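Technical annex B. To support the medicinal chemistry partners, we prepared a structural model of the target in complex with zinc ion, based solely on the information shown next.
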Amino acid sequence: MPWSERRRRTNHTVVVAILLLVLLASAPSAEEKQLSIYGPRVSYSLPVSEYNGQDYVALLEVLEPFGNVSAGGDGNGWKLHFNNVEAEFQQGGNLSKIAGQKFGLPSPFVLENNRGLVPLHALPAILALMLATKAEYHEAARRLFLGGAATRFTTDLREGGLSVKFSAPVDPLISTEPGKLKMTFTRDPVVSNAYILRLENPLISSVAFSENNGRAELAVQGKVPLLAQFAAGGKTIDIVPAPSQAQSAPPAAAPETTPVAVAVPPPPTLQSLTAKPPFVVMLDAGHGGDDRGALLSETLEEKGVTLAFARRLRSELQSHGISAVMSRDADVTVPVEQRAAMADAARVAVFVSLHAASQGRGVRVYTAMINSATNMPGSFVPWDTAQAGHVLTRRALADIVKAEFGKHEIPSTELSAPLKPLNNVAAAAIAIEVAPSGADVGSVNAGVYQQRIAAAIAEAIVVSRSRVEAER
Ligand SMILES: [Zn+2]
């Protein structure tokens, strides 16, 4: 993560520019086909490919977030191992074997550059077998719900606006256009039995639910400009008139407003209205797969250093009794957006992104800079500030981390930068960039040096735990 180096900055600008292009390319206008998968611990989206007019997805990529997966082929055969389950496919064949059972595919298996693709139609059944769980598929919208994952909502019209209450915290992208406020859910398994709710109200005329291309959307039609406010830890979104309009807007006579032509959504599922999730740290080894990161020396790639360091930090945290999960635990490509989505889906308490650099000395501690303008095209207003609610904890965490580095005699500097995925993570999030301990660049990959840094970070997380917990 070489933000602080002139030589590398160019590289990073290019990476950021490419990421922006990728993000823009996946924006609704481009209409690249997406599948979203929602599990109890993780939710993510994947691209859908077309072969002979049929939709396909890469099976290894689908399974990766759920556990250890590996695959390989010889000739036309392709075998995949997921945890203790095995699946076998044949290039161009309809017959496969999954978890010891014969399984017929609705269209032939495709093997492309050693990547096994299965028909999307069959994926819910394949996952139900491989993960031994319930799979519910909203085919038209390409949204797959595993293990009963579902977030429901109710609406409550009150004086001055509308409250939308969800059965679990949500993190939609909020956008506005004249007369309309839209909440787009890509990571949240928001479902509804109702599609449109018409209201007799001076401020809001209707609320419509729809789902399409791996996303769900709630569109609020307003008679005045509206804005959204998050409350109850992300479980409530209040739709209220935008401030400039608040005075001129006619007063909302809540008691008299009654919905007409109503299809009322079912009440929230109570089991998901649980207390605070457990204290878990997500370790995000920067780069990976196609993105090798900085070339630290002729033989040392950043992606390998960050992974080794993340594993070391994981065992260090575990030895302090703290649960740690990884955004990647192999040399694989994981888009930054997906890393944030994984952290949010797992509702982690702390997110630590790890990078390495060849320049400078010691360690740099980054926190997200929220107020930097993120310009999006068109009239959309970005709501790109998941970190905004975590200002105190991430600052405190960064300070404590820096203090621990001091105790361990590791030189460190603290910086803020508008970093992905830090800005999008709804947890106390920091990034740590490890620079060499001395003149030897190879020291960034040295076990003893990494161990000292990992020990300091783990102790800092132990020290800041109660503070982080208090603000969740
Ligand atoms: Zn990096």
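Notes passed to the chemistry partners:
Residues 153-266 form a domain with the Immunoglobulin-like fold (CATH 2.60.40.3470).
Residues 447-470 form the longest helix (24 residues).
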